[in-house]
Amino acid sequence: QDRELVQKLVNIARPVLFIPNLAIHFCTERNKFECNNELMLRPIIASFVADGLNKSEEGENHSSEGDVNDASDIQHDHHSVLLNLIAKEAGCTPQDIVDMDLYLYDHQPATIGGVYDEFISSQRLDNLVGTFTAIRGLIDSVTEGITEFKNEENIRIASCYDNEECGSESAQGAKSHFTEWVLRRLAAGGSQTAFEEAIAKSFMISADQAHTAHPNYRDKHEDNHRPKFHGGVIVKVNMNQRYATTGRTHAVLKQIAHLASCPLQKIVVRNDMPCGTTVGPLLSSNLGLQTVDVGCGMLAMHSIRELTCTSSIFQAIALYSAFFKHLPAVLQSLK
Question: Which of 15, 321, 13 lies closest to 149, judged by CA?
Fold first, then answer.
């Protein structure tokens, strides 16, 4: 814009792209699902008929320089229908678009359901629930304890990361040094070892989602660890360090939960089954932070529609708020 790069955030809040499954009648192996990511995930944005009827009098988008190879021209990289749509949302012309990062998401809104309105059915509960409850807990810890907060010597942080599901190896992911640089700046101004001393006194909750025991697949869960809906935030434990919880960090969280009357549950994956992981072990090992891995219980994790319970949202907010308020005193009481 005016020979300057301008960054704009665009959210097309309506369904514009579709990726239909092949009808089961055409499947040679009906009980087997296979997906070729290159051939089977091409989205449909418009039909040729509708596109032809809606063409503007100007015709297809093209570079104003003709056949000149302009590095900023992406007209030949994307269909004109898509570029026109994005340009309209961004308030510019298709020729103004230099580059873009686009992400598809399920447009179907989240719904509350069940006979007693106790369930939330939605896309991306993993991990927007953790993001929302962590930030809400931080805010509540300040607004509900403003008197104590005025005398607070500790720094309260809610940190949200991108790209966790594909390895966290990005500038905005948990594997980057961004967190360390921020914490170092916060600790600057003291002694040369102020950062290291602060890390030794710090504590982190890794708030990702957790698995509730599935009533239709009881053999997938360890017999003595079957978290339930409405039972409280779930603490995740794994001896192979897929989760960062230790006996010490679990005990600290238990004490905080006791002080705030917040229920807790625990999950341990069966020894004969693989275990997922979170950003907890990444941050804990890179920074040397005491960490406990927790999450709200849910079913159908990583599905296009996931399921959780309404009470878990309030339970998580209450626990995280209590964590911010009570952690200093609990750590001081450790002997």
Answer: 321
Position 57 scores a pLDDT of 45
Give 284-316 pLDDT, tens digit per residue. Answer: 999 999 999 999 999 999 999 999 999 999 999
């302009």: which residue's tokens? Answer: 70
The domain spans of the chain are 1-104, 111-333
Yes or no: say if 240 and 166 are a contact pair by the CB < 8 Å rule.
Answer: no
Torsion from C-alpha of 31, 36, 42, 48, nearest 10 degrees:
-80
- What Cα–Cα distance (Å) separates residue 187 from each residue in 129, 192, 289, 307? 30, 10, 15, 40
**Packing angle, helices 178-187 and 279-287, rounded to 10:** 50
pTM (2 d.p.): 0.89
Read off the pLDDT of residues 117-142 as tens digits, 9 standing for 90 and up. 999 999 999 999 999 999 999 999 99
Torsion 246-249-255-261 (CA) sign: negative
In whole angstroms, what is the distance from residue 221 CA to residue 272 CA?
10
Rounded Cα gap, residues 71 and 333, in angstroms: 62
Which residue type sits at 87?
Answer: A
- Per-residue pLDDT of 80-99, as tens digits, reads 999 999 999 999 999 999 99
Number of helices and strands in the chain (H, E): 9, 9
Q: Check whether the bond before 224 is cis (ω within 30° of 0).
A: no
Residue corresponding to tokens 């229908």: 81
DSSP 54-65: T--TT-S---TT
CATH 2.30.250.10 fits 1-104, yes or no: yes
Instruction: For domain 111-333, give the CATH number.
Output: 3.40.630.10
Backbone angles phi, psi at 111, to 5 degrees: -130, 150
